[in-house]
Each structure stands twice: as C-alpha cells, then as structure tokens.
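As a warm-up, study this chain.
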Amino acid sequence: MTKQKLDGKREPAAPRPERGAEAAAGRPLSGDATRERKHSQEEALKHKTKARSTLFTRNFTLLVLGQVSSLLGNYTLKFALSMYVLERTGSASVFAGLLAAAMAPTILLSPVGGVLADRADRRRIMVTLDALSGLAVLAAAAAMQAADHIAVIAALLFVLSILGAFESPTVQACVPQMLSGDDLLKGNAVVGQVQAVAGLVTPFLGSVFYAAFGLGPVFAAAVVCFFVTAGFECLLRLDPPERQVDGGKSAAAILRADLAESLRFLRRDQPAVCKLLLLAALVSMVLVSLASVGFPYLVRTVLGLSAQLYGAAESAMGVAAIAGSAAVGLLAGRLRPGRMHWLVAAAGLCLLPAGAAFLLPVGVMGRYLVLLAAFCGCQLAAGMFSICAVSLVQQRTPRHLTGKVMAFVYTIPLCAQPVGQLLCGALLDAFAGSVWLVLLPGGLLICAAGLASAKLFAGMERDQPPKPQGT
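Now compare it with the structure written out below.
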C-alpha cells in the first residue's frame, strides 16, 4: 500500500523485503511466497521421484516380468526332463549328450540372431519366439503319447536351443535401448538377479512338480509360462530399428555383410572390446569349468561327501550369484571400468585357498568348508565382472550393431566352456591324488590375467562415452 504525504502527493512504497529474508528474519511468508515455496517443494519431490524411478520404466518392468516367467518355465522344464531321462535310461551321459547336442544350434545361430535383432522389430521377435517355444512344448507333450520319449525330448531341446539362439541377443540388445548411464548397469544387474534366482529355485520347483504330478503338468506349466511371457512382451513399446538400404542383396549377402561389419567394429573401432571378450572367454573356460566339473568331483569323489552336502553347497553358490548381482546394483555408481580388473583378480584369488586346503591337514569337513567359501567368493566376483563387462560393451556399441555384438558377447565365452570342461576333467583325472595342482595354477592364471588387464580397463575408462543428460 502506498504512503501519502500531508500535501496529498503520493510517494512510492518502500521496497518489499526478499521472501527469503522474510523467512530468515522469522516473519511469516506472504500468501504468494507460501504458494511459491510449496510449488517448488512439490517440483523437487517430483524430480526426486522421477530420478528414483528411471530404472523400472514401463518397458524394463515388462521385460523383467517376461524374463521371470520365461526362465521359470524353461529351467523347471529342463530340470524335470533331466530327472525323467535319468529314470528311463539310468545314464547321466545320455542326458549330457542331449544337452551338448542341443548347445550346438545356440553357438552356431547366435550371430544370425544378432543380425535379426538389429534389423527387425525386437518386440515382435521376442513375442514370436516365446509363442513358438510354448507351441513346441505343447507339441512335444502331445507327441509323448505316441512317439519314443527320448527322441521327443531330444527334438524339444534342439528346437528350444534354436529359439534361444535368436532370443538371447535380442533381449540383451533391448536393455541398452531402454536404459542408459548407471541405470544400464543396474538393469543388467536386475536381469542377472532374475537368472540367478531362477537357477536357484527351479530345481526345487522341478523336483516337486515332477515327483508329485509327473511330467505332464510340468509341460503344461512351461506352456503357460511361455505364453505369459509373450503377453508381457506384446505390451512393450520399442522404437523400430533404423531402416538399412541393402540394394537388393540376398539374405546370405546381407548376413555376411552384417557380420563383417560387426567384426570390423570389434577389430578396428573397438579393439578393447575384442580383448575384453577374450578375457571373458578365459574366465569362462577356467572358472565355469571348475565350478561345473571340478566342484562336484571334489565334493563327491575326492572328499566322498553326501549328495545332501553337495546340494547345500550348490544352493550356497546360487545365493552367492544373487549377492553378486545385487552388489552391482547397489554399487553401480562406484564400479568404474578402471577397477574391473580387481574383480577378475579377486575371482582367481578365491581359488588359492581351495588348492591350499588339500596341502594342509584340515580334515575332510575343513576342506569342504574352505571349498565352499572359496567357490562362493569366486562366484560372487565372477558374476559381478560378467554384469559389468556386458554393460561396458553395451555402452560402447552403436544401436544398429547392438544385437550382432551382443551375440558375439554371448557366443565367445560359451564356446570356451566345453573346451575348459574337457580340459578340467582330464587334469582332475590325471592328478586325482594331488588336485591342488589343478586348483592353484587355475587360480594363479586368472589372478595374473586380471592384474595384466589393468591397462586395458584404464584405457576403456578414459575412452568411455559420456553419460546421457539426466542420468
């Protein structure tokens, strides 16, 4: 309100104090100031909530729910099939042979799946593949009524392997399309947790369902899981891939050109990624082989312990894998690429106590406990490295190459596993009385490889692309 002099002239009002000064002086804020302050607080709360919720976007939530359903159905089915084959044939080698034969399409066709993931609508690819998986299981359940059961199971595993060769690179290419920055690392950690939890609980689910109801209900549950997954994927909203001009080339020529482009990207544009894949292949060849072949051999044959103790150890290792994925999600902002070599070195370091336990007079149970702690630590560190490595490759790969490059990320370590398993089995047979000669060199090799890769990861951190705004 203006002031008036005695002579009737108006003089300007004194300037109003700043609103912040009013609050600082302890005077109550005016109505406008109160409303403005309340509005700013609401905007800050909205911004904070949005920042918290950027990970579980609509698309990523649907993708995770689909993976939960798909993995539960797939893993439970395969576990029940293993029990059925063992009961019918009495031979573990028969089912091992079936799995080995079924792995071939995954290794051979994954690069083709990567090409498709970069050229076609990824949502439609995933929906089609999961629907076909459900139909394949349904057809196998019907065929089991008339045909040879083992032949039907072999055909089913073969078909699921072919479909998986196309689905894995597509799913891995979708994650960087949905997330970026630290959220990409957290998202891969969530996917890793889903896989680890599924691997932990499905043996129990498969054994309970199979023992209580037989193979038929397991088939039915798998069909439902695959179709539920396809339903979740139908709701995804993904941008279509960039249209690529092919000039009338044949499908074979397009495939050759796309694979050559991705290999050229790895060799020339991103040689560091190529070296990272070779390191991952070495880690897979040594650590996965020791975990899948060496650990059961050491517990059951060398130490002569019961199946119950071996089962408990496998469960503990599953929990360690889940813990590794959770740790990546919690430490996403601190896990810089320049520190990734310590994860590899730590995984190798964990094997050294396992080897030393067979040189020291600690008794059978003492060796079992040391083995359990060592392999759990190895699983945790290796799992963290795997998630960080995948995220690092995704961040450095252009969108139009993501599917093809992720196919190589999936295939190269997978190819190294059978070689490592054969080598591990042969070495353990040759040094059955001195297994430390296998464990200690294996641990030292991985530890040395991790330390030697310090320069590689330091360079990748320097060349890391900048994070998108808002992440």
